[in-house]
Design goal:
Keywords: Disulfide bond, Hydrolase, Protease, Serine protease, Signal. It comes from Pimpla hypochondriaca (Parasitoid wasp). It holds the Pfam family Trypsin. The protein has one domain: Thrombin, subunit H, CATH 2.40.10.10. Helices cover about 10% and strands about 35% of the residues. It is built from two helices and 15 strands. It has a six-stranded antiparallel beta barrel with strand order 8-11-12-15-14-13. The chain is globular.
Length: about 250
């Protein structure tokens, strides 16, 4: 029991740290509080506001997501920030996506789980206003190391697989051998949880630790205990920073 309490305390501490700087489901996840995961956003279309993917804020007008979330998709998506319930119309901040930059080495596969360089940078029409509900994650300054990481999303729920869930949920994940996923290091981060998973609708959601964004959900298998593949943000730092400066 003491060990279990200690582990829970450590997880909560890391989540808090993630907010100090303020295509898959989170299956069996925990409900996020309003001041948690303030850099995690929903991508949607303004005509219906149906959630399509997640994303991670990395600057006032820059968001990271998975390339397969935007490749071949109609233009006109909006970023929805500042909310944990996607039905919330009072607190939501909606900003149109002005430009989509897909990594040049991304090659869409029939099975998207086999796609490499699954990362895209979204340039927003106007700046996001940061607050206690909206903030940016920091880009990592070092390679991901073994330990607990966290991902949150609005993806499909195991009990109702035909619709996305309304409320943001999170799950703690442990780094695993990248070769167990559909890609190898250094491009991929392989992570798993014994109590939860990501699946359809959580793609693009950021994997965070201590306020830093280390991964972008690329391919989950919707089953606790099975590995989820995340695109390794650190591996693509030069590309990210170059394009952030170019489209500042």
């Amino acid at each position: 029991m003491l060990i279990q309490v200690f582990i829970i305390a450590q997880c909560l501490s890391l989540i808090a740290g993630a907010n100090d700087r303020p295509r898959s489901r989170i299956r069996e996840g925990q409900l996020a509080k309003d001041d948690e995961f303030t850099g995690t956003v929903s991508l949607a279309y303004p005509n219906n506001f149906i959630h399509t993917c997640g994303g991670g804020i990395i600057g006032p007008h820059h968001v990271l997501t998975a390339a397969h979330c935007v490749h071949g998709k109609p233009l006109g998506q909006v970023v929805r920030a500042g909310i944990h319930d996607i039905r919330d119309t009072d607190n939501v901040i909606e900003v149109a996506v002005k430009k989509v930059i897909i990594h040049p080495q991304y090659l869409a596969q029939a099975d998207y789980r086999a796609s490499d360089s699954d990362i895209a940078l979204l340039v927003l029409e106007s700046d996001l206003t940061f607050s206690n509900r909206v903030n940016a994650y920091s880009l990592p300054t070092e390679k991901p190391v073994p330990g607990s990481y966290f991902v949150a999303g609005w993806g499909r729920n195991a009990r109702n697989p035909t619709t996305y869930q309304f409320q943001l949920k999170w799950v703690a994940m442990i780094l695993d051998d990248p070769d167990k996923c559909y890609g190898s290091a250094p491009e991929a981060i392989c992570s798993y949880s014994s109590v939860g998973s990501t699946c359809s609708g959580d793609s693009g959601s950021p994997l965070i630790r201590g306020g830093n964004i280390y991964g972008i959900d690329s391919a989950g298998v919707c089953e606790p205990g099975k590995p989820t593949r995340f695109t390794n943000v650190y591996h693509f730092l030069d590309w990210i920073q170059t394009n952030m400066q170019r489209y500042n």
